[in-house]
Structure formats: structure tokens, C-alpha cells
Design brief:
Layout lengths: L2 E4 L10 H11 L7 H15 L4 H14 L2 H16 L5 H13 L2 E9 H11 L3 E10 L2 E7 L6 H11 L10 E4 L5 H4 L4 E5 L3 H10 L2 E3 L4
Parallel strand pairs: 1-2, 1-5, 2-3, 5-6, 6-7
Antiparallel strand pairs: 3-4
Helix pairs in contact: 1-2, 1-4
Length: about 220
């Protein structure tokens, strides 16, 4: 039995849930239709290029959580799951998760997307353990700020090590599946790094290092 770690966006699902949530908010008329769309697209391009200013992105991304009631957010998220997430869950990803469950592995999703967006997705996928960006809450309301270290790039390694301190197992024999070169710091930490439908940079690194490359979309 080992730890099987999975990136979420463009790995287990065929879209980026952070970006899709932004699109959903635009469709609801919940954010500025011009400034928010421009920022959402710019930050997505920066992420893909490996140049994302995470603090600036989170300032934008977490503001709608602070601007709306928990009841409104919960209602929106139900719609978001049905319209954006469910159609983009990859059957082969569910099969991969099932194979690791059958092996007796512990499943963990680690993502740079925030916990509000991703916790229901992890639950839908049957993955109990999740490390995500934690939006700060005070008296049940989101503040628009981040609690702790964002699980992005090297932050994923830091957050995983913190999580492991409370567990009875280690990274010995661990797997990590990801599509993004932004996850190279964590891919380098595990015994079984797997590039899943990788971006160009990750594919090149995976080929050079003879890491496994696989597709969950074919």
C-alpha cells in the first residue's frame, strides 16, 4: 500500500476548475464582465507559462467568496458541479482512481485551486483526502484572504510534508499524477512520477527522465 497523489485540473478532469469557476461567475453576472474576464484569461495564461503571481491571482479569485453569502455560494456551486464539472470528469481518471483503491493505496488530491471549489469535486470522485488552497473564514464567512501556504509549485511540497506529519505513512513508493510543469517540484519528490496528458514542458522533462507518460483522454 502506497500514497497515490493526484493533481486535479486537466488531470482527473479535462478542464481547469479555477478558470471554469470564473467563467461560471461571469455567466451568473456575479463579477465585472470585462475586468474579471480579462484577468481570468491573463492569469490562466500566466499559469500555463509558469509565471503566475499567485498572490495577485488569489486576491482576484477569492474576492467573490467574500462578496457573497455562504448560501448563495452553495447554490452556485451546485449549479457549477452540474454544468461545468460533471461533463468534464474523465472516465479513465475514475478507472485509475479505482485501480489504486483496489491496491489498497491511500488517495490524495493536491491542487492549487481553492478548497471551496475543489472539495465537492474530490467528494464526487470518492477521494477523502484533499490538499488545496485554504480560503480564510471568520464567523462562517470568507474574508477574501488565504489561510496558510498556497498549495502551488513548491508550496505543494510544503503542504504535503505538513500533511504527512499527521499520517502514519511516508512518501516511500508514492505516486504523483500531473499534467503541469508547475508540479515538477512535487513530481521530483516521489518514486513514481507520472505525466498525464502533459503540457509541452512537462512532456519534455518526462521524456528526458524516462518518467511514465499516459493519457486519460484517449
Amino acid at each position: 500500500m502506497s500514497l497515490a497523489i493526484f493533481d486535479l485540473d486537466n488531470t482527473l478532469i479535462s478542464i481547469d476548475s479555477d478558470h471554469a469557476w470564473g467563467e461560471f461567475l461571469l455567466e451568473q453576472g456575479a463579477v465585472d464582465p470585462i475586468a474579471y474576464r480579462e484577468a481570468n484569461e491573463r492569469f490562466m495564461a500566466d499559469y500555463n507559462a509558469g509565471t503566475l503571481d499567485m498572490a495577485a491571482f488569489l486576491e482576484m479569485a477569492l474576492k467573490p467568496l467574500a462578496d457573497n453569502t455562504p448560501e448563495q455560494l452553495a447554490s452556485w456551486h451546485q449549479q457549477f458541479m452540474a454544468s461545468k464539472i460533471e461533463p468534464n470528469i474523465l472516465p479513465k481518471a475514475e478507472e485509475l482512481l479505482a485501480r489504486h483503491r483496489t491496491r489498497g493505496d491511500t488517495l490524495l488530491i493536491i491542487t492549487a485551486t481553492n478548497h471551496f471549489i475543489t472539495a465537492p469535486i474530490a467528494e464526487r470522485l470518492g477521494v477523502d483526502d484533499l490538499i488545496a488552497v485554504d480560503p480564510e473564514r471568520v464567523d462562517g464567512r470568507y474574508t477574501g484572504r488565504v489561510a496558510g501556504i498556497p498549495s502551488y509549485r513548491e508550496g505543494k511540497v510544503t503542504r504535503l510534508k505538513q500533511w504527512l506529519e499527521g499520517q502514519e505513512f511516508t512518501l516511500d513508493g508514492a505516486w504523483f499524477y500531473s499534467d503541469s510543469h508547475n508540479d515538477l517540484p512535487l513530481l521530483e519528490q516521489v518514486e513514481h512520477p507520472v505525466a498525464v496528458d502533459p503540457d509541452e514542458t512537462l512532456r519534455q522533462v518526462a521524456e528526458e527522465r524516462q518518467w511514465r507518460i499516459m493519457s486519460l483522454r484517449d
